[in-house]
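As noted in the main text, all predictions were made from sequence alone. Below is one such record, for Probable allantoicase.
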Amino acid sequence: MTDFTELPDLAARNLGGGVVAANDEFFAERENLIKPEPAVFTPHTFGHKGQVYDGWETRRRRDHGHDWATVRLGTPGVIRGVVVDTAFFTGNYPEACSVEAASVAGYPSPEELAAADWVEVVPRSPLAGDTRNVFAATSGQRFTHVRLNIFPDGGVARLRVHGEVLPDPRWFAGIPLDLAALQNGGVVTDCSNRFYSAPNNLLLPGQARVMGEGWETARRRGGGNDWVNVRLVEEGIVRQVEIDTTHFKGNAPGWFRLTGDGGTELLPRTRLQPDTRHVYRVPPTAPVREIRVDVYPDGGFARLRVYGDLTAGGRERVGLRWYDALPATRAAAVLTEDAGLAQAAALRVAAARPLLDGAGVERALAAAGVDDDTAIAVRTLLTGR
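Prediction:
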């Protein structure tokens, strides 16, 4: 993908994002920033505080300083770009903005977040009113939170934080793993048609509430069929697949087929029912990195789940991608907290990044003088081996 706006919105409410704090929301509520749907506007709709806006709007500042809102990403990841959408804000939009990001473990309070180490990913930049203001991000690190700063005050309709999901593989152990889930690092790479709705909706957490929260194609009038390609979190063995057509009644596909890398058939052409959650066991096959769902001839469905297990190589790669992208302080901290590494040695290993592969881990451990028992704990943490 060359256009970062095609990447998932890591901050979206339907991915689990939340606006945890703002210094002011006098005219319009901060939570509006991360609604997944576009902003709307109804002229001459006034409440007790003036015209009602579908966005976040602060009062007019009478002192120096600026306003801000802090957003918990729905899933941590590497931020590739940000859209600050000032839709319908014309005489009351901010003149400039900047975006900072932080990586914080657990469930920090707003006060704890205020004291975090914040990294500027979008420098202070001018804004235009009633416009999707698009900014590329400047850091390749993995973050959990962002802070939108507006100068000096005003209103923003939506904040989109596009990037690559980078999961923490420590959470994969001992639970059924959805290899395709957006929150685990799966992503749609291509599809035949997205006329009615976006294909990445298939990989969102939870159940679709309405038909519009799934993926639906236009009616096919020629030959062929529609399809969607998904890159899994990493290479894995697929054990079970769920195709959920809930809410799709007169427009569900009649059949589907599931294939993996190189066209390897995982499930043959199989009949589907409307408005139904279908679950299928997948016979043992070779590991796959990508899957393709063909639907016949067209139509839509709500959710796709691909349950399975990472291969040893897949677990190593996802673990090292995660570790190499952590901010330096977090990278050292996870080694002391989870592997018992002394702080000095943990800092040396973190400074040796990118580790890239198992050989890189061994070199970093040897250079830091880590003893054998602790080295085993570090290897298990980072590579699963």
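The chain has a mean pLDDT of 94. The CA atoms of residues 190 and 229 lie 5 Å apart. These features were considered when defining construct boundaries for the mutagenesis experiments described in Section 2.9.
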